[in-house]
Automatic annotation (TrEMBL):
Organism taxonomic ancestry: Bacteria, Bacillati, Bacillota, Clostridia, Monoglobales
PANTHER family hit by this protein: BLL0784 PROTEIN, YLXR DOMAIN-CONTAINING PROTEIN
Protein name, entry field: Putative nucleic-acid-binding protein implicated in transcription termination
Superkingdom of the organism of origin: Bacteria
Species for this entry: Monoglobus pectinilyticus
Pfam families the record matches: YlxR
Occurrences of domain YlxR (ranges): 4-73
Annotated InterPro entries: YlxR, YlxR-like_sf, YlxR_dom
Length: 81
């Protein structure tokens, strides 16, 4: 099974255990529920979903300012399944 690193805790997990986040060409950052969007992605494990904002992982990865609402939407989308 392919593994990927969680962008928050830096531990490795199987892809199926991770939540993928991507940034579209227009600069929108969103939860990639299918894991297949053709865009630059990062992965966050279940335990770190709520830590992403504190660690500013989207800013680090995408080198830009990210509104708190982007993190809030990510958390709520992941938690709603
Ligand atoms: Zn993690």
């Amino acid at each position: 099974m392919p593994t990927r690193m969680c962008a928050v805790c830096r531990k490795r997990f199987e892809k199926s255990e991770l939540n993928r986040v991507v940034m579209s060409e227009s600069g929108e950052i969103f939860y990639d529920r299918t894991g297949k969007a053709q865009a630059r992605g990062l992965y966050i494990c279940r335990e770190c979903v709520r830590e992403a904002e504190k660690k500013r992982v989207f800013e680090r990865e995408y080198k830009r300012r990210v509104e708190p609402s982007v993190y809030e939407r990510f958390v709520s989308e992941v938690e709603s399944g």
